[in-house]
# Entry
Amino acid sequence: MNIEHTLFVIYSIDSRNNMARFIDHAYSIKGMIEFDELSLLKDDYAHLYFENRIGPFDTEEDLLKFSYLLSEKSRLDGVCLCGSEAINNAIVEAKNVSQFNEVLFEKGEKIENPEEKKRGLFSGLLR
# Structure
């Protein structure tokens, strides 16, 4: 998986909400994913968009599944799921934004999207 084609998903765990997980930010190297512009959150998953974050997810597996769906909709190779430990490491170790992303990519939990690999070199030309 390549860092340039990865969706970074920053999540938090809310102790006041039965330790539920929430997606606070999602971005790729090209820029932020604006939650309020996602058609996905206006249709099937509108109930998950609350106070500028997405959730709650009861388990990390549910969080991973939704994050993977976001990467598919964004046509990215995969997800790098980053909790507080990965973010704290990146803050301590990084000296600039590029290094911050590299540390997150190294420390975060990565899941590849096998469909993006299958598309191949000429897939964009054949649509």
Strands lie at 6-14, 20-28, 31-32, 49-50, 53-57, 78-82, 109-112. The chain has one domain: 3-118. The longest helix spans residues 60-73.
